Structure formats: structure tokens, C-alpha cells
Fold each of these.
Amino acid sequence: MALWTAAEAAEATGGRATGDWEATGVSIDTRTIAPGDLFVALKAARDGHDFVAQALEKGAGAALVSRVPEGVPDDAPLLIVDDVQTALEGLGRAGRARSRARVAAITGSVGKTSTKEMLRAALEPSGRVHAAEASYNNHWGVPLTLARMPRDTDYAVIEIGMNHPGEIAPLAMQARPHVAMVTIVAPAHLEAFDDLAGIAHEKASIFEGLEPGGTAVLNGDLETTPILEAAAERHATHRISFGEGPGNHHRLIEALVRDGTTVGTARLWRTQVHLKVATEGRHFAMNALGVLAVVGALGADRTRALMALGTWAPPAGRGTRERLLLDDGVAAGTIDLIDDAFNANPASMSASLAVLAAAQPQDNLGHVGRGRRIAILGDMLELGPAENELHAELARDPAMKSVHVVHCVGTRMRHLHAALPDEKRGRWTGDAESLVREAARIVDPGDVVLVKGSKGSRVSLVVDAIRKLGHRRDMPEAEL
């Protein structure tokens, strides 16, 4: 079945279609384009019009353009519009308007993408789910997700992010969610905001897009919770809070973090449930509570959602844990690698360090003799004028007491390196590439290694280097 016909797309965008084409998908990248996709020639780092001919050669059903590019035949299937970004937004609005899906939108300073994936998994037993790809949560990612929504979708999950004030509300109004969730408000993007309250007001603006009768789901344990609650009062018909405090509608009573899993007890309104996610971190259990609130508000099956969460693990780079069998050239034995190298701010750093602190290294496996908890931390970006102090303050995080060695990457992380006690201070390098060359010397069998940093710090290169020291080994069932 066609996702978009030429006539439908032209009506949605106010554009002019050449030919009577059909598109089975929507793409912005010729590297991943599939035959039948509508290629959207966005202008970003490069002008997408330069790739239209390539997209058509790869089998694109048509291209959304503001001009006919050079090298494109006169009879090529095109949708010609005044502005490609505006047209993509129109296509997204039309995709949302024609859908019967129940829609959820998620934002927050930490955990947007992992919570989006958690909600996707929780909803799948109840129907056909459409969710944003990767971290497609900005001015082009949200309309692209909506434009890609299949006609027969039952539930849609839209991730909404921001870098500057005023970005979330317009995207929420495009998504028009029935339920909107704020995971947490924490210091992130502070260079664009005066203070944490400013971030909270921006996050709370997601509720402005709620459909009539909509539900606001929010973290009830925050310093800025009153800001979220005030916005929910203005824009939502229903409000559900989650957290550990006794006043929350969904309350986490207990959570135990073990190798490869987090299990706990929670109370959903007056119903006590056993909660499990197949990854480590109290914060994952907390967000699972919010997910269950969203599931209930969407009218999906909460019991099936609980069962699905029991086997859920985060996507790569967002806290996944794997066991690596090291080659004999390094040393015989295994290490546990926690890959959290996609994003970082003080709140997510603290959560990841808590996971590391709870992990159990293995003794008597390597040259060191004692298994260690090792943190490899890259710069946290976009923290504003207080960034140096925020990096140094990590040395006082309670979890640091249980970390044996901390290696630091980046100019900002040098402030943490200087603040660490001598016995914990590992290597400092100005860039990730320098630490990559030392990967074999900083890990030893029996270690548990956390790699965490903002994407721009490129500490994912260190993750790749550590993986290349050996190969993945599935963790035994008893250890999960």
C-alpha cells in the first residue's frame, strides 16, 4: 500500500507533482534510502538537491524539491514546493491528521530516546506501533516521523528534543499527542537558558500540544516539578506523576540493580506490581513507571506492557552492557563493557556512575589481580558558563567512592581529572583518539568499564577500540 500518492502529497504540501507517482516511505538520506521512498531534499550540512539524481538512480519513488536540480530528467517524478522544510512539516501534519493512532510524545533532559524505545516495546503487544527512528526529535525529525506513519498505526511514539527556547511547543503541536511525558529536568543545554527553571518551562511546553482530554505524565520528584504541574494544569485534562515520593500516583517502592537487570516493586495508583527491565539502572526503573502511566493513558494493555518491559534493554550507546572475551594477546578472560557514549549531562553522568558502582568486577582473572570499576568519561557539552564547575563536581558524586579508576577525555573533563583524589586519577587526554591508542593498557580481565560522554566528545571511538580487543560473549542466563 502506498504511504503517499502524488495527489495526497501535493495537497498536504501545497506543491506541484510531476507525474502520477506513489511513495512507500520517506527518506532524507541517500545512504539508507529504499526503493519507492520519497526523497526529501533538505538543506543541512549539504544541500539535499545535490543528491536527488542519486536518490532517483537508487529507486526513489519521487523527490521533494524546491527546484529541479541539474542532471535530473525533465520527466522525473518530483514534488516541487516553495520550501522543503515547510513542505515536510505539512506532510507530517497531514500524516498525523489522517491517522487513527493514539499518540504519545516524550521529552526530558535525560532519557528521551531510551524511554521512547521502552514505550515502543511496552505498546507492541497491544497493536501496531510507529516510533521515531534513532534520535529524530528536532525540527526535521518530528515531521519526518509523522510523515512516515503508516495508515494502519495503532500507537505512535514521538520523541521531542530542544537546544534553544521555543522549540518544543511547535513540535508538540505538530504531533498533537493524546499523552505527553517529561522524563526529567536536569542541567543540559544551559548555555541557551538562564537556569534550570528556564529548562523546565521549555520541557513543560510539550503539554501545549495535547489533544483535548489529553494526559500529562511528569516526574513528581524534581525541584522543578511545580513548573511542570502548573503547565499540566493549564493544558491537560488528566495528570499522572511518577517517582519515589509518597505523593506520586505511580511510585517506585524498591529497586535492586543486578548484573544485567533491574528489578523492583512499584505501586501504580493502589495496585502493587513487580517491575523488571533487562538492563542496569535505577533510572531505567523510574522511567518504566512513567512508561506504564503512558500505556494506561493510551488505553493499551498494562499487564502485557509489564511483561514486555521485563525483556527490554536500551539501544546501543545508551547504557547497554556486554561481556567481551579478550584475545590472548591482551590477557585471557572477560571484561564487562557499559556503552553509554551517546549523550551526557550531570544527571545522566550520575545515573551511569551509580550503575557502575553497583556492578561487580571479577577478581583473579587478569594481570592486576583485582577486578576494577573503571570510568572513561568524555566532555559534557552545552552546559554554559558553569561547565567547568559541573565537570569538577562529578568528583563528589556518591558513586565515585566505589569507582577505582577514572580516565578523562576532553578539555572540560580536565577539571574533573584535577578534582579527583590521586588514587582514582587515571589518564587525561585532550581527545578520544589519543585514548584509543591506549585501550589495551587501561583495561584488564575482570574489570567493569563504563564509557560515557556527549556525542561530540567522540568517546564512542574508545568503545569501538575496547570491543576490538576481543569479541562479544553472551552473559549467562543466571547473571541477567
Amino acid sequence: MVSPTDPEATLEPWSEGDFWLLERQNTPEMTEHLGGPETAEKLVDRHRRYLLLTERGRVFRITVDGRTTGSIGYWEQEWQGGTVWETGWGVLPEFQGRGIAVAAARLVLDAARTESLHRFVHAFPSTGNPGSNAVCRKAGFHLVGDSDLEYPKGHWSRHNDWRFDLEAEAAAGAEA
């Protein structure tokens, strides 16, 4: 799935030592489309959830050439009467614009496919986030529509609903 021009991104399972990355990503710039920076207590809770998320999803540290460039994951989410995978990512500012998020999204789709639990992976970037919407398009997601979503709790905003069909992509790959 990764073309020769894509960066050689790898996904490393989230570990106890990755808390620093949450702190680096908790800036006004990186959380502009997520309701703003979180409190220190919320970061600790998020880190704990990431560490415990091992059977119904995963969170990873993205690396390129041995350097940590961001994080990505997938987890279960109730959506429109069913359970789907949801994905989300954050690439550190100094590494943005290099295709790292697209390469990592493709890798996380492969990881979600191996779970064989849910057919669809959804991403919900805000409609005003051109970078994340471009990642969805370039990684092969299909735009379903848009919705008002509450994230974080108490903060409503308009988001696009991008969907990736793991079964259709697997079937297409088998036919090729």
C-alpha cells in the first residue's frame, strides 16, 4: 500500500515511556481542531487508556528513520447503531507535510484488518482541518458526509465522516 515515495514509517506499540509524546502533542497548534489542550490530569488518563488498549484496538508511536514523529491508533466506537473502528493521529509539527500521517494511516488500517472484528474504520476530522481531511483522502478513505460531534465532552463541532471498508479493500487486494 505504501508507494516508493512515501516515508518508511513504522508503528511501535504505545509504551509507558511514551507519555512525553502526549505532552508534546498537547499544544494549541496540535489541538486546534480537538477542542484545545488537555489538563495534566486528562493527559495522565489518556496515557493510561492507551496502555490498556490492547484487545479492542491499539495506539502506536509513529517512527521514521528511528525518530518519533507522532502517534496514531484505532479503537472501538459506537456509530450509527453499530460498532466500528475509529482512527485518529497526530504528527508533530516539524514532521508535518511529508506524507507520514498517510503512511501511518495505511499501516494502522492493515493492523485493524488483522483484528477481523469490524468491517469499517472511520475517521472524523473537523470540516475545518484540511490536513487531516487530505490524509483521509490520500489513505483511501471515502467521504460519507458530515455531522455535528461532541469532542471533547461539552465541545460540539462539525466533522467529516470518512470511512474505509476493510473487507472491500481486502477483496480488491486478493483479486489483484
Amino acid sequence: MTHTVEKIGGTSMSRFTEVLNNIWLRKKNNDLFNRIFVVSAYAGITDLLLEHKKTGNAGVYSCFAEAEQEDAWIDRLNLVEEKLLAINKQMFVGADLEDANRFISRRIRDAEQCMQSLHSLCSYGHFQLEEHLSTVREMLASIGEAHSAYNSTKLLKNNQIPARFVDLTGWKQERPLAIDQMITETFKGLDPSKELLIVTGYTQCSEQLMRTFDRGYSEMTFAKIAALTGAREAVIHKEFHLSSADPRLVGEENVVTIGMTNFDVADQLSNLGMEAIHPRAAREIRKGGIHIRIKNTFEPDHLGTIIDNNYCNPRPCVEIIAGRKDVVGIEVFDQDMLGSPEHDIHISQTIKELKLQLVNKEADANSITFYVAGNRKKINRIMRLIEEKYPLAEVKMHNVAIVSAVGSDIKIKGMLARTVSALSDAGINVLALHQSVRQVEMQCIVAENDYEDAIRALHFSLIEAENHGDVIRKIAV
């Protein structure tokens, strides 16, 4: 295990000159090689290909799937091509630009022809478009990653660095393989000690990654490659440090960079939309006994944050104040609920089918509240479905925010009281409060417009007042 597997996020990829200088051309242990890079699409491209991750605004896929305007998806696909060619123009000139444009335009045209044929085929009653939509979604998503990986390889070669484009998208492959087989066969014969391997963040496989991970597919590709190739370390390059809070809210001078934490904390952050890594992807890496390092792309000298399976803070404390304000509380009051799990089971299943994120839920004798995140169209749809299923129930929607105190060990007497007092002293009303017996997180539900003040109040009381300092790192680069 002499190599690392490293993932570069889309925001970082868009600043390709800094990625080149801060990551690819920067030696690790006096060596440019023994590194495998899994790259995401450039920032915003996957939103254009599928749909906007946060707002739900239509992309190529959603226009094709909803078919409200028959040819709207073609216009969107042409818009994507224009955007990709514009990125190419920023990176290359002359023959290199022509080659880069030819590669991505060919993919775009192949996808367009495939979707046109599918649309025509499904005009016959024996074929249903819905049965093929997941495959279309996977095909479109792969375009962004193929574009960034191909361009990155060309950029490295232009800088006299041996590099290889490793295409896991299975473009025009006769049949999909299982993901383990796809990765194992693709990497057979490749030698990261002699060239940088630039890998697409999307992997075509028989399991269809997007059915389970949706937009987290690149993290699963990254995790599988790390586990199957026996990496000594898995590195994630992001545009920020993993810190004690969002520096834009509490001030850069007040945040503490987290030196070490564990996978349990990473899972809690993922649940709040602050994904260090998808929990299922993290499980693959944990099974391989590999630790993860989170690094800031734009501060290459910083050692970053180690996520290690066995780490526990030697001094119990709150390490991170995190949260999200794009949360809706769906409250269902029904006296028929008493003593029956039916409402919980049915509504939870509906949330899963609509691909809404269930952040938390709470219940008493005759009511249950689900805290979910997702686009407004899906929120409105689940409200209608609940009302149709339970016509006698009273269903309400609350726009709320969640603020959380998270740590590898927060089993401290009085911590819950301190948390509530900090919010109360700041004039913030706590609408609901959640803490599990494992005591790695405390979640406070507050009004949406209290979110930023709540983050600042908890960070000041639970972290700044404690003067943590950076946690000592026990694992070298």
C-alpha cells in the first residue's frame, strides 16, 4: 500500500490552475506519482445535466423525464455543450482545444441520439419511458465527469507530466459489469508509480450507482477504488477546511480547524448536508482499514483533517457547530395514530420514494413530525399524498432550521442545559430538541430566520469559550 486515492470536488476542479499547482504538480514524499485522482465534473455542470441540487431547477434530465415541452431537453443539452466548450476554451488553444472539443461534442451527440431514439421507441405502447429513466440519468451524469477527467489528463501532459485518462463511464460498453469487477479490470495493468491516473468520478456498473447514491456516486467510485486497490490513504480535496463552524457565519478568526475526528462525526455532518463523505462510501473505506484526510485545495501546506475509525477526542467536548436551514417540518396529527406504527412506516417509505432526505423525526402519542430536506415541488407533493392517505389527519408544514452540536465524545454533564441556555440567552426559541443516548450530537430545531444567530450563539458558548485549539494530529501526510 504505497499509493493514495484522492478525490477532487467540482468547485476545486473549476479552478484548474490552482489544482494543477497545489495538487498535481506538488510532490508528496518527494514523489509526483503513486497517486490516483478521482475527479468530479466542473462546478455547476451536473446541475445543468440533471437538475439543480438545491433549487430543483430543471436540467437536461428533468426536462426529458417530465416532457412538459417535447424538445426542451434538447435546448438544455445544447446549453450544456456551450458551457463545456467554454471551459475548454479557458484551458486550451490550437490543436489541444480542437481535440478537447471533439471529445466532448462526440459524447453530447451520442447522448442526444440515444435519447431521441428512446423517445421515439417509447411512443409505442409496449415500451414505457419510466422504465429507462434511471439509465438516462446515469448516462447524462457521466458526461460531466468524462469531460473533466479528459481535460485534466490533457492539461497534465501539456505540463510534461505522464498521465492517463481512466474512463469508468462504460461509454458504448456492451454490457455493464458489477462495480468491483469494473474497477478491478480497468485498473489491471495500470501503474500509478509511473503515471498519474485521472479517473472519472462516475462508474457505470450493473448496480447503477445513482439508484442508491444519486449525486453521491463519485464518492462511491472514490471509496471503491481506495478499497480495491489497497490505498494507504484516501484524500478528499475541498474548497474549505473541516472547521468548528462556517467561518462566514462566526468569523475566520474564531473558527478552529478540526485536526482529527472519526467516521461517526462524519456521518452526522453528512446528515446535515455537510458531506465530508457519503456514509455508505465511508463504510467501504472503513472496512479496508483506511483513514481519510480532508484537505483544503487552496492551502496545500496545511495537513488537513484526519477521519479515523478509532479516534475519540481525549477531552470530551463539542467539536463542531453545524446545521442547515433548508428544512421543512411536516407535522401530522391524527388520533388514529395512537398505538399504531402505520403512519410512521407509510410516510417514511413515501419520503424515500420521492428521494427527499429525512434529517430527523419525532413522535408523541397522536402526532409525528418529519424533518426533511428537498426541493419545494417534492415537498408539496408529499404533503398532498399524506392528506390523501389520511383525510382525517391535520397536516402542517413548518419552515425551520436545524443547528447541531457535534463531537466524537460529548458525554459531559450539563452540556444539554448549556446548549439550551446559550440559545435562550441569544433570544432564540427552541422549537424541538433531540439527543440520542450515544451522545455524539445534539440537534436543536429553531425558526428558519434564527439559523445564523443560533450557529453564532452555540459556537461562542460551546467552542470559543472552551479555547480548544487545533487537535494534535497523530498521522503524518
Amino acid sequence: MKNQKHYALITGATSGIGYELAKLFANDKFNLIIVARDEAKLASVANTLKAADIEVITIAKDLFDPNAAFELFEEVQRRGLQVDVLVNDAGQGVYGKFIETDLNRELDIIQLNIASLVALTKLFVREMVGRKSGKILNLASVAGKAPGPYQAVYHGTKAFVHSFNEAVRTEIKDTGVSLTSLLPGATDTDFFRKADMLDSKVVQDGELADPADVAKDGYEALMKGKDMVVSGFKNKVQVAIGNLTPDHIQAAQMEKIQEPADKAKE
């Protein structure tokens, strides 16, 4: 389309890693489509990002809803916008022993972390392959590299995201389109509050990464077309050791890291 504008679309763009990624794209003069649930927060963030002299479009969608990814894609199509970069950042977890946590909440998290991500990737990557250009950044996690007691479902969803990403990347390797996995460790975002995880040892110990540093690692890997990046030296070491460690041992180690802080003191 002659008058078509090009954009980076970012889900979960109003806070944490998603917001820091949006700032990096804005600084490089990408027009943006930012997506989150809260319309007021979207408007506030858009006003901040517009200071970089770019266009920012806000679309309020709740990606816990199975229809939301399709509605988002349709709205982008209806507006005649071309998404050159897709960032699937939106994701949540739930904390606690699996036998005690709420099943419906966990099914919602699977919808958000897996189903919506797969749908958006499918819908936009087809377009990208058709025009032989485009980039996708999917937020995985070092959590996906090890079984995670107290976050069994979250770790499982992130294992899916990374495996899925590598598989699709290989399928389309000769099309001019790249998929990149960003694997952060524990990061200072709103994730832990939403997961009811503030009392966990990993949070109480306070060894949390800066979301701006994580975003920078992901942005640079995306722009270079890399398949994946593990953010942070300690996380790189953890993943490297984990690759040589049996899963049941990793699970026991992760249990000690993620258990409630008061239990760790017993």
C-alpha cells in the first residue's frame, strides 16, 4: 500500500520490560502500536513516548480473552497498518503449590502466555513471510529452562514459548523473517505482585534485574536477528549449568530459590 505506515506492535507495553522496549523503539524512531488492558495507562504511556516525535497508537485488549488476539489483528488490518516488528511481552504467573493454586487462574495464564502469543505470532508472521521481511521478539524466560516448583504452570508456559520460537524460526529461516527469544531472569517488574509472589525468597533476597537492562539485551538481539538471548551474566551461567544438570536436581534447586521466605528460614 502506497500510503501504508510501518509500526512495531508491543503487548504488555505499559510497564516493566514491555515499556522499556517501547522506549527503545521510540528512540530509534519506530512508530508504535502499544497494547494493554488499561486504557488510561495506555494513554499516559503514549503521551510519554510521543516525546520522541513518533506516532503512537493505543489499542486496549485483554489477552486473557481467547478472542482478543484475533480482534487485535483485525483492528490493525482495518486501520491499514503494517507491523514490521511484533513484540509479545504480555505474560503473567501464579505462585504457590500446584495442588493449592486456582485452576481457572492457571488456565487464564496458559491462554495469555501461550495461546494469545501463538495466535499473534501466526497472524503476523504469515504477513511478514509474504513480504519477506519482519522481526518478532517473544518473551520467554530462564524459568523455561528448568522445572519450577511454586510456579509449575508459569515455568511450563515459558518452556513452550522458547521451544515454539526456535521451531518456527527454523521453519522460516530462508524467508527474511527472524524470531528471537528473550530469556530474562527475575526482574524488577510488577510480575511478582500480580503473581502473589512478594513473599517468595527470590523477591525477598532482592536480586532482581533492571528491566531497562533486560530490554536492551532483547532489543539488540532482535535487531541482529539472533535466535535467543539470555539476559544477565548470572542467568547465562545458570542456563549453562542447567543444560548439564538432570531435571529433578534442577527442580529441587529451584524449589529452594522460589519457596516462601519464611519457610526458607525454618
